């Protein structure tokens, strides 16, 4: 029942909070994220179980006024069935909604980070989630494509929810088309961060630091390209460089002073190097950073580039690493056009103290989420998702549970 689902999700949330230190250490051990950030992720992750524990009891249908006197028209909301979740990071954002709606789930965690999903499974058992409701299927990188195809094509699976790259999302969509499965996709981002002449530069620098370098630039909503208006360009770059050098510390995630851990694997490091090499070959300048860190092959220096153009790789595709390229622009229209030129649109940010400009730009940016004078925007109460090739559907918020519900119309005649 909805009450039972609510109670068990709530207990799962409580167990996550009771074990948050151990869960955070698992995250740091398997992907290198600084422990303080990992602790914050556990609290954020657990909050989705708390939120959807409450939403489980608020899945309301409707009674619609009928066009005929002898009829009654009802709308019921029912769980879609078995949901396959393929998350790279946020498991609870999907699983909490699915279980609240009454679905069972099969979780396929990213091959680099399976331990967190398995730890959540242990706590789900302790919370009284019945066997077979929360299922985890880890596998090697070599087997991932085959496992994905099976889960996408099996008729017993009614719904797919995926977090990951746009390229992989397109493959899963093709597989899902054969049985016309419900899908929600949270795919790649290429977030612009615009700083207008009217901005408070110090606040913009603080927001840029948080938005770009959280988890060493490895989140889907991390800023990928900075657009700075010519009037404050030099001041912003100077202050941003000083902030990077003063406030960011590369190191072991378990070291208390570390703010930047390693990248997830060497392939990720190679992509950052490729983007820097391409930019420099076309005239970009390295202000700070620019190379692998002496700590080891997966560690990379936080890097700031200037004299960047829209023809460079780092402004055409997502880097997913600690690289901040800065493009100088002249007019608002130019900045909006550059920001919207991408074929994806997950998050976008801009700093301005002009009220009219704030309304114009917020409405014109082709993204699913906009941060205005704010670099960190994720929250359990707010809908998370993108437009264009950044995906389909929304997670979290009051809208998130709808992704796991079917709407059934019932007409009662002969009354």
From TrEMBL:
Under catalytic activity, the entry for this protein gives:
succinate semialdehyde + NAD(+) + H2O = succinate + NADH + 2 H(+)
Give, as in the UniProt entry, the pathway in which the protein acts.
Amino-acid degradation; 4-aminobutanoate degradation
Task: List cellular component terms (GO).
Answer: mitochondrion
UniProt keyword Chloroplast present: no
Q: Name one GO molecular function term.
A: succinate-semialdehyde dehydrogenase (NAD+) activity
Keyword terms of this UniProt record: Mitochondrion, NAD, Oxidoreductase
- What enzyme class is recorded for this protein? oxidoreductase
For this protein, the Enzyme Commission number is 1.2.1.24
- Compartments reported by the entry: Mitochondrion
Q: Name the SUPFAM superfamilies on file.
A: ALDH-like
Write out the GO biological process terms.
gamma-aminobutyric acid catabolic process
| Gene3D superfamilies listed in its UniProt record | Aldehyde Dehydrogenase, Chain A, domain 1 (3.40.605.10), Aldehyde Dehydrogenase, Chain A, domain 2 (3.40.309.10)
Q: Which Pfam families does this UniProt record tie to the protein?
A: Aldedh
Using the record's annotation, list all stretches that form the Aldehyde dehydrogenase domain. 3-410
CDD domains from the UniProt entry: ALDH_F5_SSADH_GabD (cd07103)
Query: Which PANTHER family does the protein's record reference?
Result: SUCCINATE-SEMIALDEHYDE DEHYDROGENASE, MITOCHONDRIAL
What does the subunit comment say?
Homotetramer.
What does the UniProt function comment say about this protein? Catalyzes one step in the degradation of the inhibitory neurotransmitter gamma-aminobutyric acid (GABA).
Similarity section:
Belongs to the aldehyde dehydrogenase family.
Protein name (Swiss-Prot/TrEMBL): Succinate-semialdehyde dehydrogenase
Q: Please spell out the taxonomic lineage of the organism that makes this protein.
A: Eukaryota, Metazoa, Chordata, Craniata, Vertebrata
């Amino acid at each position: 029942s909805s009450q039972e689902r609510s109670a068990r999700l709530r207990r799962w949330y409580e167990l996550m909070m009771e074990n948050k230190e151990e869960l955070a250490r698992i995250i740091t051990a398997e992907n290198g994220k600084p422990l303080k950030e990992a602790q914050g992720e556990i609290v954020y992750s657990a909050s989705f179980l708390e939120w959807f524990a409450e939403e489980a009891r608020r899945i309301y249908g409707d009674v619609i006024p009928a066009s005929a006197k002898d009829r009654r028209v009802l709308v019921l909301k029912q769980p879609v069935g078995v949901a396959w979740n393929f998350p790279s990071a946020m498991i609870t954002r999907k699983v909490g909604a699915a279980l609240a709606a009454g679905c069972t789930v099969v979780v396929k965690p990213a091959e680099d980070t399976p331990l967190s999903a398995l730890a959540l499974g242990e706590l789900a058992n302790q919370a009284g989630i019945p066997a077979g409701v929360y299922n985890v299927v880890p596998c090697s990188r070599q087997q991932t494509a085959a496992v994905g195809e099976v889960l996408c094509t099996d008729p017993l699976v009614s719904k797919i929810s995926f977090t990951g790259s746009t390229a992989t999302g397109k493959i899963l969509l093709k597989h899902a088309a054969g049985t016309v499965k419900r899908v929600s996709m949270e795919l790649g981002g290429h977030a612009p961060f615009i700083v207008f002449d009217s901005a408070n530069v110090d606040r913009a620098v603080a927001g840029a630091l948080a938005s770009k370098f959280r988890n060493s630039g490895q989140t889907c909503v991390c800023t990928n390209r900075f657009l700075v208006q010519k009037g404050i360009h030099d001041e912003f770059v100077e202050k941003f460089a000083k902030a990077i050098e003063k406030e960011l510390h590369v190191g072991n995630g378990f070291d208390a002073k570390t703010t930047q851990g390693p990248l997830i694997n060497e392939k990720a490091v190679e992509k950052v190097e490729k983007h820097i090499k391409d930019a420099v070959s076309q005239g970009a300048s390295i202000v700070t950073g620019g190379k692998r860190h002496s700590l080891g092959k997966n560690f990379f220096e936080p890097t700031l580039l200037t004299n960047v153009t829209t023809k460079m790789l780092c402004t055409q595709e997502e880097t997913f690493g600690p690289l901040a390229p800065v493009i100088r622009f002249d007019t608002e229209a130019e900045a909006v056009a550059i920001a919207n030129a991408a074929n994806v649109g997950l998050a976008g940010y801009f700093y301005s103290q002009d009220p009219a400009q704030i309304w114009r730009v917020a409405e014109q940016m082709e993204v699913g989420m906009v941060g205005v004078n704010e670099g960190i925007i994720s929250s359990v109460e707010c809908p998370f998702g993108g437009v264009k090739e950044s995906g389909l559907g929304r997670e979290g918020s009051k809208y998130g549970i709808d992704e796991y519900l079917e709407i059934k119309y019932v007409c009662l005649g002969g009354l």
